[in-house]
Amino acid sequence: MVENRSWLPLVAVGVIAAATIALLSWAVHRAGAAPTVIHYREVLSESALRVLIHDSNLHEQGRQLFLRYCTLCHGINGQGLVGPNLRDDYWLHGSDMQRIVESIANGNPTKGMAPWKPVLSVTDLHALAVYVASLSGNHDTQGKAAEGVKQPIIWRTTSP
Questions:
Q1: Disulfide: which of 50, 57, 89, 94 matches 152 by Cβ 3.0-4.6 Å?
Q2: What is the CATH number of the domain that holds 102?
């Protein structure tokens, strides 16, 4: 006796399997596409940004932001953990205020630093840059080994 087998369940399983494979292929292909990145360009002049370093309220705001967002990679004192040491005189992208703001805003994806512009306001970026600039120049030999180019922030000690 010949059993009557239905072909409908087999077709349904085949269609579902093909759809799943097509969806997974599309998802993998889509994940590999690079997102559109719009780099932040600082619009304030270097001299205008340097004046901000003397604003104690902005400095405190930057310190609070640093403690909230940056300590995981840079350490509670900026000594560097996964991220670079911010207490020495070495910089990956320059030590002027415009470069510091842009480094924070745009991040450094090759080193694992996310861009902070989508999270922080321009005022927050400036406050954080003021605080980061205040950390530099500590020659206590504490922290992670230097990375980047030696560029001391000599302008920080001058009056606005």
A1: 89
A2: 1.10.760.10
